[in-house]
Specification:
By secondary structure, the protein is of the alpha/beta class. Helix content is 46%, strand content 16%.
């Protein structure tokens, strides 16, 4: 081996070792506070892994399903849940690959989540259930509701995903992107660039909240922890998300479901009125309401107004 080749090998090995060390540091720093662990956590033994959930209150069942963004977990709804326990038996879960649920190294799809929610309602809740769901999780809830109407009561969808975007299927480019993020060291290192404190804070500032002054540091740290629990396997759901494996075409199902549906939009969410009007085009029975001065997470930014709309609808 000549000197140039030897130098290249040494530099490559050093770079990989440095990235491995940084990966360990990122994971440790992201989870050191243990914010998500508490005595209220329960686990449902599902076929693909353990699903973390919490149960509170009494009354008619109400299930909360979080979005698919980096760091998502049932923490997304913490400002709503305790205010609904007088009239509802509340269930809030972490989807497979998110929060404190198991994060197996697999491809995550909308159909897997559809099956998860259906099985959870059947085997854990055991009664017809209303669902509150956010963003890119809306399609698989609508699909599950269509395929299992006996399980669902009313649906409340917060800032649903654009119908055009959710119809996009994996392409060569997105499949390559998924493959890259799933690589052992460099893929993990790149994931940590997207899932570090700075990037999560930037998402809250630019996408999730209209009023940055309403963002609390505990939101950032809870999302940061959820994005790193499970060590390096936390990246697999994100890789499938980027690869568009979670997308679903639901136009047929949207037309056919006969449930009462309320769509809540953050008034300042990009193109949300057009998005919801498109849903109403396929299902005219959908009701809609918009929360002023909010973006993607009105239930975190203006929870009192969201609660008022939820209570009126339910």
């Amino acid at each position: 081996m000549n000197k140039k080749a030897a130098t290249a090998v040494i530099l490559t090995a050093s770079s990989i070792s440095a990235m491995h060390v940084m990966n360990r540091i990122h994971t440790s720093l992201g989870t050191v506070k243990n914010l998500l662990g508490n005595s209220e956590n329960r686990y449902y033994e599902w076929r693909f892994g353990k699903i973390r959930y919490q149960k509170k209150g009494s009354g008619t069942p109400l299930l909360f399903v979080h979005d698919l963004t980096v760091g998502s977990s049932n923490y997304e709804y913490h400002r709503l849940i305790n205010n609904l326990t007088d009239k509802h038996e509340i269930y809030s879960i972490d989807l497979l690959g998110y929060g404190l649920s198991d994060k197996p190294s697999m491809t995550y799809t909308g159909n897997i989540y559809e099956q998860l929610i259906s099985d959870f309602i059947k085997n854990v809740i055991g009664k017809k259930t209303s669902v509150i769901v956010t963003g890119e999780s809306v399609p698989f809830i609508i699909m599950s509701c269509h395929n299992n109407p006996e399980l669902y009561n009313k649906l409340i969808c917060i800032n649903p995903q654009n119908l055009y975007l959710q119809n996009q299927i994996p392409s060569k480019q997105t499949m390559l992107l998924k493959f890259f993020f799933e690589l052992p060291v460099i893929g993990t290192f790149t994931y940590h660039i997207f899932a570090n404190r700075y990037m999560i804070r930037k998402s809250f500032d630019e996408e999730y909240f209209y009023q940055p002054g309403e963002i609390k540091e505990k939101y950032i740290y809870n999302y940061l922890e959820a994005a790193h629990v499970g060590r390096y396997n936390a990246k697999f759901a994100f890789a499938s998300y980027l690869g568009k494996y979670m997308n679903m075409n639901i136009l047929h199902e949207l037309k056919e479901i006969d449930n009462s549906i309320l769509m809540i939009g953050g008034e300042k969410e990009k193109e949300i009125q057009t998005t919801i009007e498109n849903y109403k085009y396929y299902n005219p029975a959908i009701e809609d309401v918009y929360i002023p001065q909010t973006k993607h997470f009105p239930h975190l930014e203006s929870p009192d107004e969201v609660l008022r709309e939820i209570e009126m609808f339910l």
